[in-house]
Amino acid sequence: MSPIRDPIHGYIEILPSIEKLLDTKIVQRLRNVKQLGWTNLAYPGANHTRFEHSLGTYYLAGRLAANLDEQEKAEIEVAALLHDIGHGPYSHDCEDVLERYTRRDHADVKFLLERPEIASILEEQGMKPATIASHIKGETRISQIVNGTLDVDRMDYILRDAYYTGVSYGIVDVEHLLRHLGFRDNSLVLYQRGLKSAEALLMSRFLMYPSVYNHHVGRIAGAMFVNALETAIDAGMINPFDLQLMDDYELNVKMRSMQGYPGEIIRRLNQRELFKRALFVGFESVDRNIVRYSSVHRDAEVEIARLAGIDRGYVLVDIPKVPDFKERNMKVLTENDQLKYLDSVSNLARIMESSYTDDWRMGVYTLPEYREKVGQIARDYFNVEKVPKQSKLEIA
């Protein structure tokens, strides 16, 4: 075995069969795909990559799969290592673009697993690309370890993202949590003794959303990047089916060489010359049904830009989805041997589930010189209600 030293998990032992996969171009590409996309413009330390996250997920999967039979354990370790090979450049910032133009998401990796450099290694180990692809997509019993309600993927990224951004929310006893997860009736269940560790993990994720994952700088940079990338694709300058074979640097260089809007925007991002918030409001100011119409935000951009008398590319409307709390479906094995859903045994889980909407924000971004004009037009367009400010505490 070859050990790899990891700042999160310590030494990760790599089997020779796994080392072969690590050395493929498909996996090595992940060294140049940032885990958090453009979030390093807000947190300079957030330069960690999908490669090290994949190693961490592989390590945790092996720990959790220790009681499976030899073949299942080997398969789920490989699935964990390869689960992110379908990510495009800048990770989640590229995800909606992939789905729109290719009808694939980052978990649709069968076509990559079938490429000779991966398929031949899997064949040596008695594995089929289709089987590993099913594990990655969450379609098998053991896939719950990597793609489930409380999986090792999120365990690693929460710890890793907290570490590299420098926030203090990633203090979770993963060792204790792993000891209290196991299979029961074909479901991965949490034993009640591990409930507090699970709550700590979910609380860390909950706190990371407003401070890291939805930080306004990252949202602005991501929106600029996506708009520039879509413009380049629509102009025939980039083939969207090539994205899952490119890394951050390849795409960045390619876009920098372009004339017009895509080249301008990528240069702005590289120099941190970002758009500014013309509007940034929560559900207290807009109808929360607006989330349903996030897919038609381009229409809003066109109209707001028209009314402001500026080019559409300089008005970006950002309507995030409310984070999915699929952990509610995690089954907990109580001390009296009953299986119950997490939100029925954890008051904290119920509070977190209902509180995700508190930190939701819709943003409208533009160049600094257009900020005031675009902000007023956007307020009228979205019928934003002004929330009265309480200037002092009223004492009864």
UniProtKB/TrEMBL annotation:
InterPro entries xref list: dGTPase-like, HD/PDEase_dom, HD_assoc_2, HD_domain
Source taxon at top rank: Archaea
Record GO terms (molecular function): dGTPase activity
A GO biological process held by the record: dGTP catabolic process
Gene3D superfamilies referenced in this protein's UniProt entry, alphabetically: Hypothetical protein af1432 (1.10.3210.10)
HD domain boundaries: 50-158
PANTHER family linked: DEOXYNUCLEOSIDE TRIPHOSPHATE TRIPHOSPHOHYDROLASE, DEOXYNUCLEOSIDE TRIPHOSPHATE TRIPHOSPHOHYDROLASE SAMHD1
The protein, known as: Metal-dependent phosphohydrolase (HD superfamily)
